[in-house]
Amino acid sequence: MINNIIEGISINLKNGFGDTYSIYSGDIKQDLKRPCFFIKALDPSISAKLGNRQYREYPFDIHYYPGEETENSFEMNTVAESLIDILKLIPLKDDLIRGSHMTYQVEDSILHFKVKYNLFVTKQIETDFMESLHTNQTIKR
Known about the structure:
- The chain has 141 residues and is α+β, with helices and mostly antiparallel strands.
- The protein is 21% helix and 40% strand.
- It has a single domain, classed as STM4215-like (2-Layer Sandwich), CATH 3.30.2000.
- The chain contains two helices and seven strands.
- Strand 5 (89-92) and strand 6 (95-107) form a beta hairpin.
């Protein structure tokens, strides 16, 4: 599920910002090509609900590395405001999922845009049913 959400975020970032921005979701060893985005999953949580339902919260921190390593607050604010609209709804399989709890801040010339995707999941439960049942009944008179 989390990989599907990362893929949906990547699709929206690519559609919103174009091909001039690189998008990373794994470890960046070297050669970071700026400007770029880095998608980092934070601590997901799962809560059991009634029956076979689960409530899942997937928080993300989208890092934006600007083209220049100097902090340009105008560029950071513009990108952050764009991310609000771009990450509001992302594709998830054949559906859309809504982002919530959006916040952003700039630390060490990097924009940290945090968003949370919450959803209910229904898990398939395998049940073993009896193959057949035979009964013999008689009526007393």
